[in-house]
Design a protein that fits this description.
Elements lengths: L23 E3 L2 E3 L8 E4 L6 E5 L4 H18 L4 H30 L3 H22 L6 E3 L5 E8 L2 E5 L5 H14 L3 E5 L8 H10 L7 E3 L4 H9 L3 E7 L2 H12 L4 E5 L5 E4 L5 H13 L11 E5 L3 H13 L19 H16 L3 E4 L20 E4 L6 H4 L6 E7 L2 H9 L8 E3 L3 H10 L6 E2 L18 E2 L7 H4 L1 E8 L9
Parallel strand pairs: 7-8, 7-10, 8-9, 10-11, 12-13, 12-17, 13-16, 15-16, 17-18
Antiparallel strand pairs: 1-2, 3-4, 5-6, 6-20, 11-19, 14-15
Helix pairs in contact: 2-3, 2-4, 2-5, 3-4, 8-9
This protein binds 1,4-dihydronicotinamide adenine dinucleotide (NAI).
1,4-dihydronicotinamide adenine dinucleotide binds next to helix 6 and helix 7.
Length: about 500
């Protein structure tokens, strides 16, 4: 067998890798794409080189993948939870074994730093391990009825589920969606973002190696057209989507045609509120964690930073000092803490937001410019210096819209009541954060913020045991935590008569 790209990772460095293997996966193997004429180049963000070609799946291929998933589902759904758990635990073990190679390939395709990618891969196997633990606990209820009759409920899978992923956490999203799906007895067909096609197929290989039936986790490549085929397919029971609000709305609309269940993880413009009684150093660290992970391309980022007026000077001084010190450059080097944005278009879009902020009256305290590393191989990369904007107002575009880049907007506030009202004045509601030493205030603010998550005295930690998802236009349904079992299963009621039928007729 030819050496896989993953096996070449130990010696790989930025600018050296080309992926030529097939990136579709169903019926237990990688599948050659049919329509090479529609291929699109995929770039390595740190260099701007072509990493591979993404060749979208058409209707026949989507149909084949779904049929293959359906076959696997019929077998997998009949296993006991503990039997499914065994396969999933083995998959988690294999990911742990290959974590460094998977993380490296993720960096080459996504541009984030290796330090972060390793965390992403760890969260991926932890998620699979967590749901493996829950697989054996799925159970129904027994309900006694008059005359010895009784009913019981069974928690059953939905069938073939579709996962549609974004490019910011390619491998982790595939794990977050497949782990609860598989634990409940479903099969999944996953479509990664066309910009990050290379690691989901590795997860498919790992599930197979772990003993999953052929077809249990399939990967189809493609963009909007392939996504549309998946959302319209009559044999699909559920779509779990991560991405932008406009696409999420389309997914919901398409899924409604055949009444498919939907989970939507959409964007955000989350508020981070810093009170003057906070522990300032932690608040500063929290603000950096809330804004600069994955070059700021994180849906739950706390990009509207509200700081109580009295501490604004100290806060800004410290935040700017630390932002300027973020090591930016080759994402595969251990010391790097910020890599390249996903694409040239994304870089230009983010720089455009900074220009617009300036024209609307914001002050750039640092960054916000294209960054050209000294290493010649990175000259074509999509780097920008992380940016802190001061003198922002709630009506500015940079404060209202999701930028999806390393841009923090800072605004003063005076009172708790005022800041909570301003924080909630958005159509989004994914996350929020508060820094204060006053515990009553912390819990009161958490209660009053309209968001799916509120971090108290920290930001952007996402343990797999904890539910994650949005309020308002940030979506619905949850990922992670016990509750997600409910989004990948359905309840059947079985009513049992022990006596004679009392017929009215
Ligand atoms: N909140 C989040 O987690 C994310 C937000 N975004 C935001 O969205 C912007 C655009 O990024 P995109 O990757 O283009 O996001 P997108 O929402 O268009 O794409 C997300 C996924 O949906 C698929 N898709 C696109 N059109 C579809 C359709 N009609 N039917 C089914 N699937 C479809 C894409 O191929 C991709 O796999 C970013 O600049 C960012 O602001 C992007 C990614 C993640």
């Amino acid at each position: 067998m030819a050496q896989s790209t993953l096996d070449t990772m130990p010696g790989a460095s930025t600018g050296t890798v080309t992926v030529t293997e097939h990136l579709n996966f169903w019926a237990g193997k990688r599948v050659k794409p049919r329509q090479e004429s529609n291929m699109e180049p995929v770039f390595e963000p740190a260099t701007g080189r072509v990493l591979c070609q993404m060749i979208p799946c058409g209707a026949e291929e989507v149909d084949e993948a779904i049929k293959s998933a359906r076959t696997a589902y019929l077998q997998w759904s009949k296993l006991a939870g503990m039997e499914r758990a065994r396969v999933m635990l083995e998959a988690a073990r294999i990911i742990r074994e290959k974590r460094e190679n998977i993380a490296k390939l993720e960096v080459i395709n996504n541009g984030k730093s290796i330090t972060e990618a390793l965390v992403d891969i760890d969260i991926a196997w932890q998620c699979i391990e967590y749901y493996a633990g829950l697989a054996g606990t799925l159970a129904g209820q027994h309900i006694q009825l008059p005359g010895g009759a009784f009913a019981y409920t069974r928690r059953e899978p939905l069938g073939v589920c579709v996962g549609i992923g974004a490019w910011n956490y390619p491998f982790q999203i595939a794990a977050w969606k497949s782990a609860p799906a598989l634990a409940c007895g479903n099969a999944m067909v996953f479509k990664p973002s066309p910009m990050t096609p290379v690691t989901a197929v590795i997860l498919a290989e790992i599930y197979k190696e772990a003993g999953a039936p052929d077809g249990l986790f399939c990967v189809v490549q493609g963009a909007a057209e392939t996504g549309t085929l998946l959302c319209h397919h009559p044999a699909v029971a559920k779509v779990s989507f991560t991405g932008s609000v406009p696409t999420g709305k389309k997914v919901m609309e398409m899924s409604s045609k055949s009444v498919k269940q939907v989970t939507l993880e959409l964007g955000g413009k989350s508020p981070l509120i810093i009170f003057k009684d906070c522990e300032l150093e932690n608040a500063v660290k929290g603000a950096l964690m809330a804004n600069f992970l994955t070059q700021g391309q994180v849906c739950c980022n706390g990009t509207r930073v509200y700081v109580q007026r009295e501490i604004i000077p100290q806060f800004l001084e410290e935040v700017v000092k630390r932002t300027k010190a973020i090591p930016l450059g080759d994402p595969l080097l251990d010391g790097t803490r910020m890599g390249a944005l996903i694409s040239k278009a994304q870089l230009e879009k983010v720089l455009g937001f900074v220009d617009q902020a300036k024209s609307q009256g914001a002050t750039v305290l640092c960054g916000g410019e294209p960054f050209v590393p000294t290493d010649p191989k990175l000259k074509g990369g999509y780097f920008m210096s992380p940016c802190v904007l001061d003198n922002c107002r709630d009506d500015m575009t940079c404060v209202k819209e999701e930028i999806f880049g390393p841009v923090m907007s800072v605004m003063p506030f005076d009172t708790e009541e005022e800041v909570v009202q301003r924080a909630n004045n958005t159509t989004f509601g994914l996350a929020s954060g508060v820094f204060t030493r006053d515990i009553s205030r912390a819990h009161r603010v958490a209660e009053n913020l309209e968001a799916g998550t509120c971090f108290i005295n920290n930001y952007n930690i996402s343990p797999v045991e904890v539910p994650f998802g949005g309020y308002k236009m940030s979506g619905f349904g949850r990922e992670n935590g016990q509750v997600t079992i409910e989004y990948y299963s359905q309840l059947k009621t079985v009513v049992v008569e022990m006596g004679d039928v009392e017929s009215l007729f």
